[in-house]
UniProtKB/TrEMBL annotation:
Main localization of the protein described in the UniProt heading: endoplasmic reticulum
Annotated membrane topology: Single-pass type II membrane protein
Family: Belongs to the peptidase S26B family.
Superkingdom in the source lineage: Eukaryota
Keyword set includes Metal-binding: no
Protein name as annotated: Signal peptidase complex catalytic subunit SEC11
Length: 177
């Protein structure tokens, strides 16, 4: 099945393989630089996230990609949709602000998923309110269902490895032509 590709790899030699590796590293580093640039521009540690649950339906559905910003001096308002991460939790949560209290220099927020019956206090792991330091960003836009690719790769790791292998083979074939 891959005998032609393996034969091409053998004909490249050490110099050709090093050149291919350098090309791959260039693509990866370019992607990382673009990601870090987006992080700086949006003031968010993760300017793009994928919705993983149905807790915000009908506003957002599972698989939607959200674009975030985190304006430094602008307070969050009731109705804003935020993405926050509680210490000790692995996955960020996308929910709407339902209460806001500002005291001195601290803003305290209470959130709730649109499709959930109650607020998020039970999700806060003992914290009574969300603070600014917990917020990753405010939702500014979205693309519906595009994030299913990410969900599928997380649910089926073998799909991720197959996709990476295909990308590598395509790069090799393009280099040969």
């Amino acid at each position: 099945m891959f005998s032609n590709e393996i034969a091409r790899l053998r004909t490249l030699g050490v110099q050709g393989l090093l050149f291919q590796a350098l090309n791959l590293l260039t693509v990866i580093s370019s992607g990382l630089m673009m990601w870090k640039g987006l992080c700086l521009i949006t003031n968010s540690e993760s300017p793009i996230v994928v919705v993983l649950s149905g807790s915000m339906e009908p506003a957002f559905y599972r698989g939607d990609i959200l674009f975030l910003t985190n304006p430094a001096e602008v307070p969050y308002e009731i109705g804003d949709i935020t993405v926050y991460k509680i210490p000790g939790a692995d996955i960020p949560i996308v929910h709407r602000v339902i209460e806001s209290h500002i005291s001195n220099t601290t803003q305290l927020l209470l959130t709730k998923g649109d499709n959930n019956p109650g607020d998020d206090i039970t999700l806060y792991n003992g914290i009574e309110w969300i603070e600014r330091k917990h917020i990753i960003g405010k939702v500014r836009g979205f693309l519906p269902y595009i994030g299913y690719v990410t969900i599928a790769m997380n649910d089926f790791p073998q799909l991720k490895y197959a996709l990476l292998g295909c990308v590598g083979l395509v790069m090799l074939i393009q280099q040969e032509t």
